[in-house]
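LOG
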Amino acid sequence: MKSIAALQDVVTPWSDGLEPTDAELDAIEAEMPLISAEVELLDALIVLLNRPASEFDGRRIRRAHRRVLAARRDAANKSCPVPPAVA
């Protein structure tokens, strides 16, 4: 039996251009509070896969969901320019 991998070219050749740029890293850093809040919500939901929900789990999910919404609100407010004051 022949190995197919030996007959194919590399799909993604390695190059130095694969590293994220400074702008991309800044964008990730700006979104980090939202990412952390979404991970916390996901963790709370994953816990419920193994057991029935208790009152504590419900509070934990609501708290995590509120943090996600607050992080989304803050991210949206940062990306919108402040309108000029009307005299």
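LOG (cont.) second protein
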Amino acid sequence: MNQVPTLPLNNGTRMPQLGFGVWQIPDAEAERSVASALEAGYRSIDTAAVYGNEAGTGRALAAAGVPREELFVTTKLWNGPSETWGRDNVLREFDASLAKLGLDRIDLYLIHWPRPMRDDFLTIWKTFEEIAASGRAKAVGVSNFRAADLERLTAESPLVPAVNQIELHPLFPQAELRALHAKLGIATEAWSPLGQGKELLTLPEVAAVAHKHGRSAAQVVLRWHVQHGIIAIPKSVTPSRIRENLDVFGFELDADDLAALDALGASGAGRRIGPDPAHFDV
């Protein structure tokens, strides 16, 4: 079994640096995929209320027989535009996620989007402070928050988010935001760490590094994340790829490899694949 290193969060909780994401995986298929991931050696599983697969994820966790203390489970509040997000609504959604997952606590609970045009994430965060204090979430954080959102949040709250989960890959490296995370003590977590397989994994620069190490393109990109201290959550429904994505701790990129992959960020600056947090409100 692969031994995945853990990174310390700002409250002392340790989080595996490589996890398994279940975005866009239907509930029944999520149960099978999470079971495959746990069998392969993953211990960090990332889901969200809006994914509609917390129940399937929970069934896989229950059936796997992995001790709860070895698991690290992340889910996210879907702070959608159909609700006014006061304390009662946030707690209701948190309780619903716990019930679907079949757990009595979450390891990491995130606000899924900042939705700055709605001006309510500070209110939501106030309830996250309460959830963290209760111990029902070991750590709380945010997802898709921009620098301005983080600066506003940390100016208003004594509780600094443990994690900001953002789109991040070599074509969209988010260097300035990562620097702010380091300054504030926030761990950087990458969603779509492989760029959703679009373009990135077929680039000749990536292929050259992969050939040099006898590894796949996905493996060298995930290794790039690891060596930059980024937490990554690749997704797959194919058991062989699930295993392959975890097998990134038996080799190391050298300075030339890192430089070649880092250079993709200059040519690909601004190549966001997912929604822009400044405007996303669906």
